[in-house]
Amino acid sequence: MENTIEGWRAIAEALGVSERHAVRYGVRDDDPLPVRKRFGRVYIQSTELYEWVQRQDQSYGQARPATA
C-alpha cells in the first residue's frame, strides 16, 4: 500500500518548500500538483508526489523533495 501524505503542511515539508508555495503548486495551470480532497483535507500518494517532482526537475529544475 502506498504512503499517503496528508495536509498542505506535510506536503510542503516533503517538497522542502513553504506551505503557501505548495498550495501554489496545487493550483497552477501548468502541471499542477496532483492532490485530492477527502473530507475537506488535501492528500497525495507519495509515489504521485515523487513522479510529479521528477517531471518538474526535467522541465524546470526547481522543485526538489527535502532530504531526510
Fill in the keyword field for this structure.
alpha+beta, 3 helices, 46% helix, globular, 68 residues, 3-stranded antiparallel sheet
Structural features, described:
It contains three helices and three strands, in the order E-H-H-E-E-H. The chain has 68 residues and is α+β, with helices and mostly antiparallel strands. It has one domain. A hairpin with a 2-residue loop joins strand 2 and strand 3. Helix 1 packs across helix 2. It is globular and about 30 Å long. The mean pLDDT is 86.
Chart the SSEs and their pairings:
Elements: E1 4-6, H1 8-15, H2 19-27, E2 36-38, E3 41-45, H3 46-59
Antiparallel strand pairs: 1-3, 2-3
The sequence of SSEs as H and E is EHHEEH
The total strand number stands at 3
Helix count, per DSSP? 3
- Domain count: the total is 1
Largest beta-sheet details: 3 strands, antiparallel
Proportion of strand residues: 15-25%
Given helix and strand content, the structural type is alpha+beta
Cα radius of gyration in angstroms: 11 Å
Net shape: globular
Average pLDDT for all residues? 86
Low-confidence runs:
none
Span between termini: 21 Å
Q: Percentage of helical residues? A: 40-55%
Which sequence of strands runs across the widest sheet? 1-3-2
